[in-house]
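Journal club prep — side note

Before the paper discussion, L.F. wants everyone to see what a predicted structure for a comparable chain looks like in C-alpha cell form. Sequence:
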Amino acid sequence: MAFAAATSIATIGLYISYGLPILIGVVCHQSFTAMKGPFDLKGFSRPIALAAVLWIAFITVVFCLPTANPVTSQTLNYTVVAVGILAVGSVGSWVFWAKRWFTGPAAEVSEAMRLGVDVTEPGALEEREEMERKRREKAVEGTKEVSS
C-alpha cells in the first residue's frame, strides 16, 4: 500500500506541476498569446490545452481512488491527504510569505529584453547585469574624480 501511495503522490505531483501552467494559459489566454514561442499550434492551442487540463483532472481523481476492496483504514489510499497537505502548504507559503518578494520569470525576461540579452543563452543575463554594474561604478568614480 505504501508503494502505491508513494507512486500516486509522485504521479499526481508531476501532472499538477505540468497542468497548472496549461490551466493558466487556458484561463488567461490573452496574456499567453503575447508570449508565444517558436512552436505554435495556432487555433488548436486552446482545445488541446483544455483536453490536457481535463485529462489531468481525471487522472488525479483516478490516482486518489483506493486500490483494494473492501476499503478499510489499511487499504484506503491516503494520496489525497498527502497532496492536500502539500497544496495547503504551498498556497499558504505563497499567501503569507512568497508573494512579498517573488517577481517570477516575467520580470527577469523583461529585464533581459531591456538590456538586449538573448534569454536562451545560459548566464547571459547575469553577465550583462555584472557589466552594467561595473559600468555604473566606473561612471560614479569618474564623477568623483571630476568633482575633486
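L.F.'s comment for the group: Residues 1-100 form one domain. Keep this in mind when we get to the figures.
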